[in-house]
Specification:
By secondary structure, the protein is α/β, with parallel strands linked by helices. It has one domain: 4-Layer Sandwich (Metallo-beta-lactamase, Chain A), CATH 3.60.15.10. Helices cover 24% and strands 23% of the residues. The chain is built from seven helices and 15 strands. The strands form three sheets. A six-stranded mixed sheet has the order 1-2-3-6-8-9, with helices on one face. Helix 1 runs parallel beside helix 2 and helix 4 crosses helix 6. The mean pLDDT is 97.
Amino acid sequence: MTNPRIQHFYDEPSGTLSYVIADEQSGHAAVVDPVVGYSMVSGRLDTAPSDVIIEYVHKEKLGLEWILETHAHADHLSGAQYIKSKIGGSVAIGEGIRDVQAHFGPVFNLGDDFASDGHQFDRLFSDGDTFHIGELACEVIATPGHTNDSVSYRIGSAVFVGDSMFMPDFGTARCDFPGGDAELLFDSIQRILSLPGDTRLFMCHDYMPGGRELRWECTVDEQRTSNIHVNEDVDKTGFAAMRLERDATLNLPALIVPSIQVNIRGGHLPDAEENGIAYLKTPIDTL
């Protein structure tokens, strides 16, 4: 089994980890979960989190094949289209994005011009689909529960798990977004934890509880024994009860309003209006 070379990138404001996955033999690469910053105060974009990824790809002389989203994020704007515009790559996500689009299209009143068919992405993955990054064989594992469209990517001995799990000392993702389901998330996590114990798991977020240093990688064995929410002593009923109670205490992500509008479009910004300015909407008393 050929393993990839993996480089992480951390966006501190959103706590998001992005990755460049490279095939050493071919020099081909993929980016996972890239970020563009956004100011709710000024409405200005900050491309710096994606620019550092682009610089790395250039520096390492890599050819970008894929830009892989683990789901339509609610806490940061996707850098997928910005990166594609600079260095290419096909933007992909799980086919469940259609359900996410169908829910949020009416919430933001996106109208008939917005089709909930996933065409805004270059590829929609189903569970079990395979693809390649150069010579690297990649497998898609559907991991719904946090969102309808959540998928994990297995590449060699590495799995990129999106928001389904965090580092063992922080637990698991919330399940109170539309389409979220704690029992479904438990089942999804069990699929990941059924992999060999030395499988490397790469997180999409780290919030450094207790002030510890940043971590982005652990093993299946570590999660089985130490995850505070889904260790070997926790059953589905107990997990679902914990998530229901915990999720009721959580605030919405600070950037959920702009993030959802951009990310269900595959990272595309809304079209500019007749005055040449693009706008993001804020629904009142709705979310």
